Amino acid sequence: MPIVSQISVPRPGPGARLAALALAVLVLLPASAWAVRLKDVATFGGVRANQLVGYGLVVGLSGTGDKSGSQFTVQSVASMLEKMGVAVDKSKLKPKNVAAVMVTAKMPVSARPGTSLDVTVSSLGDSQSLLGGVLLLTPLRGVDGNVYALAQGPLALGGISAQGAAATAQKNITTVGSIPNGATVERGVPFQYNAQDELTLNMNMADFTTTMNVVDSINNTLGQDFARAEDITTIRLSVPQEFRGNLVPLMASLENLEVTPDGKARVVVDEKTGTVVLGRNVRLTRVAVAHGNLQIVVQESADVSQPGPFSSGQTVATAKTDVNVSEDRNNLVMMEGATLQELIDGLNAIGATPRDLISILKSLKAAGALHAELEVM
Predict the structure, then answer these.
(1) Residue 116 and residue 151: Cα distance in Å, rounded?
(2) 177 and 61 in one domain?
(3) CA quadruple 120, 123, 129, 131: dihedral positive or negative?
């Protein structure tokens, strides 16, 4: 149990609320077995990243670029050369050392001119590999059409490929590369974070209980009802007067608040891989289950009917089919899960494989004995 009575917490006021906030994070909120930090279950409005995209050319490839049939690559090369004062005939261009690519990047809202960004370069045409390529100067635009960054530089690939006349070897993907710090921000987003009088918190999970736990934790820490829930995932926080124009200390303390998340009982089933995940709140009422594997094996073979010597008969092949049916004889097993461990023990008592568990869980849900959402991926 946290020792609260032995610590004197100053009454919130001008210049003292930040100290009380830090003290509340360390003392007033006891660590729980299921407690997580606020920044792990919610995102804060105003700190999102902006997606940038651009179209460019990668040159210097060793014959692994786009084929001559990629018209947009030919047009791009011709247009680039014409802007540089070089007259070319498009019909004679063979861009086997050039590849058309799409360049993407994420620009934080706090990025300012001069900030470096990592970029991802992806082949747009039929290039076989971008290994050894260099991205030419590419403008990166936002959703509003404005240019926010410029990208250029040599590519770094995590794969390699080699091929010959009769064999091909490849490791990982060779048509997607990256350029660390390959883009430079030329225009920042016109947004002043410290100018906000109200903040928005977006919960990652839609749950009323979790949202209200966060609201209560924030209000108890700040000493007044500054936070309120607008819906199941949105929380509005009025900035206290002493933090107006200086939100960083406030957010640094709030994001480390420990809250206890809650959620619906859920069972997630991935039939492609046979994966079954059960949440800790899954419950099972008393039910009897018998599960037996049914196996049907069909074998086809051919028998040859050979005629006797010196007879007028002909050799005939006749089909023969063997069908074997086997089924496990399992007795009924009584199952009841007040806890997740009891539920697991009951399922293991049947001796079912993960593939069998999928059928069992579906049947339990249909029978009304499984009290959880069954999500099949």
Answers:
(1) 10
(2) yes
(3) negative
User: Which amino acid is residue 259, in one-letter code?
Assistant: V
Asked if 185 and 117 count as a contact pair (C-beta separation under 8 A), the reply is yes
Q: Residue 163: count other Cβ atoms within 10 Å of its Cβ.
A: 12
Residues 6+ apart with CB under 8 A from 42: 201, 202, 203, 204, 214, 235
CB 343 within 8 A of CB 282: yes
60 and 179 belong to one structural domain: yes
Q: How many angstroms separate the CA atoms of 317 and 98, rounded?
A: 61
Query: DSSP string covering 204-245, please?
Result: SS--HHHHHHHHHHHHHHHSS--EEESSSSEEEEEPPGGGTT
pLDDT band at 297 (very low <50, low <70, confident <90, very high): low
| 140-188 pLDDT, tens digit each | 999 999 999 999 999 998 877 666 666 677 777 889 999 999 999 999 8
Phi, psi angle pair for 349, to nearest 5°? -65, -25
- Co-location of 247 and 302 in the same domain: no
The domain tally of the chain equals: 4
Given a contact cutoff of 8 angstroms between Cβ atoms, the answer to whether 218 and 227 are in contact is: yes
DSSP code of residue 20: H
- Pair (141, 118) in one structural domain: yes
Three-state secondary structure call for residue 311:
coil
In a domain, 146, yes or no: yes
Residue ranges making up the domain that contains 219: 17-24+31-46+192-259
Same domain, 58 and 132: yes
Same domain, 72 and 180: yes
d(CA 67, CA 71): 9
Burial pattern 288-320, b for ≥16 Cβ within 10 A else e, equals: ebebeeeeeeeeeeeeeeeeeeeeeeeeeeeee
Q: pTM of this prediction?
A: 0.65
Question: Hey, what are 2's tokens?
Answer: 């946290």
Residue located via tokens 């509005």: 236
Distance between CA atoms of residues 55 and 178, nearest Å: 15
